[in-house]
Design a protein that fits this description.
Helices cover 74% and strands 0% of the residues. By secondary structure, it is mainly α.
Length: 138
């Protein structure tokens, strides 16, 4: 939304930082982290007769959690070089989660702007708030 507004008003691409929180929320949805957590909790409450099912659910949850945590570390680290190493680690999951690849291909450059241009803040709370107020008034 912010990116479209900037382009519409100024007709050029101005460096800006996309919201890292929203990006992490999207990653949670892509890997199904919350659903896998609920499934694991449900199996935990059930009897221990289905240990194999529990182990599979646990492995799936731990994998999704790992993707989320590595993504978070990648977004918040200070150096672009470190982020690219973490991105390489995440690329191991692209076959299982093709939407993850599409997400990073489409948004990564704007999510790591703060690493390329240190004068730009990691967060864009002020920009989003101003944009929201402008949209409300227009």
């Amino acid at each position: 939304m912010l990116e479209k507004s900037i382009f519409r008003e100024l007709s050029k691409d101005i460096p800006h930082q996309k919201c890292l929180k929203h990006a992490l929320d999207n990653i949670i949805k892509i890997v199904g982290l919350l659903q896998k957590k609920k499934r694991l909790q449900k199996l935990t409450r059930q009897s221990t007769l289905c240990r194999e099912g529990y182990k599979i659910a646990e492995d799936e949850y731990l994998e999704a959690q790992r993707i989320y945590l590595v993504s978070k570390e990648m977004f918040y680290c200070k150096r672009l070089k470190d982020s690219l190493k973490l991105l390489k680690e995440l690329s191991l999951y692209y076959n299982k989660y093709p939407t993850l690849r599409e997400f990073f291909t489409r948004h990564l450059d704007k999510l790591l702007t703060h690493q390329e241009k240190p004068e730009i803040s990691k967060t864009n709370k002020i920009s989003e708030n101003v944009n929201r107020q402008l949209m409300r008034r227009l």
